[in-house]
Amino acid sequence: MTHAPALSSIITPDHLAEFATEHYDLPQPLSCRILKTGMNHSYLLRTPKERYVLRVYYKDWRTQTEIAEELRLINTLKAGGIRVAFPIPDTWGNFIQRIMACEGERYVVLFSYAPGESVRQPSETACHQLGLTMARMHQITLGKSVRRISYDADTLIRQAYELACSRFSESLPEMRYFRRAAARIEAEFGAADPTDLRYGVVHLDLWYENMKIRQDSEITIFDFDNCGNGWLFLDIAYSLMLLFRTEPDREIYRRRSDHLLRAYGSICPISAEEMRLLPFGGLAIWLHYTGIHVRRFDDFSNQFFSETFLKFWIDTVNRWMKFNDITI
């Protein structure tokens, strides 16, 4: 029988349990179940005493070099004392595996399990800890680089706008906002004094679904799939915007953001120029992910990505900008 080609598949947990048993020195018995099928597919592996996460990358989403650089960054952070979900080598010392799915070859990496809970509305204490963790992470990544994308106005928002134009009419009010936002970000980033902006490697997706909090005092960061080179204020900006999005009480948000910023600044001073650009950083990254929704429409975003969703998406970021007294 000839099998029809596929864009994407969900590999069975039973097969991956056998795969992990063959490739890793893990105690038995070992069980496997699906955790999440998102941009990549994550599976929870359980042994009698430990838990692990097996990530199966979407076909052709990342090159082997990009994944290797992601893992190099994570291991560097781990060596520097940052709590991260770190890659675990196979029996022969390799971090990256390959598995042949029906759509073609996909990369596989085994990660340690991040303890704690994903907290949508973290306490002020947890926000303080997040600020400390982010600053310590940036101490390590300042001046460093990875062989991956470099984030700037073009790669963050101009390209995202062009991708969105392939899906939506440019005459839509939301797309007109998108166009104005792209022009404004290009102007603001272009006018910034580079000597006042710290540059290095950024996570770019620091929100509650990519970190676990335990007892308000321990934060473990994971999912560095979007890491790249860029201004360090981008990580601060996106974290603040996501805190804003999930907290309807603005006074509570102000207290949480103040705790994060003061904690971060106690380790890494934030320049006035970086502070000025924080609202624009949140705007740029939020709209950047619109471009990813377009790129991954066939296998990921088609269940929600529509004109209605675009209205919600633009309204969310517009409320963030208005909160910061900025009109786009």
From TrEMBL:
Pfam families: APH. It comes from Flavilitoribacter nigricans (strain ATCC 23147 / DSM 23189 / NBRC 102662 / NCIMB 1420 / SS-2) (Lewinella nigricans). It comes from the Bacteria. PANTHER family: AMINOGLYCOSIDE PHOSPHOTRANSFERASE DOMAIN-CONTAINING PROTEIN (PTHR21064:SF6), AMINOGLYCOSIDE PHOSPHOTRANSFERASE DOMAIN-CONTAINING PROTEIN-RELATED (PTHR21064). GO terms for molecular function: homoserine kinase activity. The lineage of its organism: Bacteria, Pseudomonadati, Bacteroidota, Saprospiria, Saprospirales. GO terms for biological process: threonine biosynthetic process. Belongs to the pseudomonas-type ThrB family. Residues 40-266 form the Aminoglycoside phosphotransferase domain. This is Aminoglycoside phosphotransferase domain-containing protein.
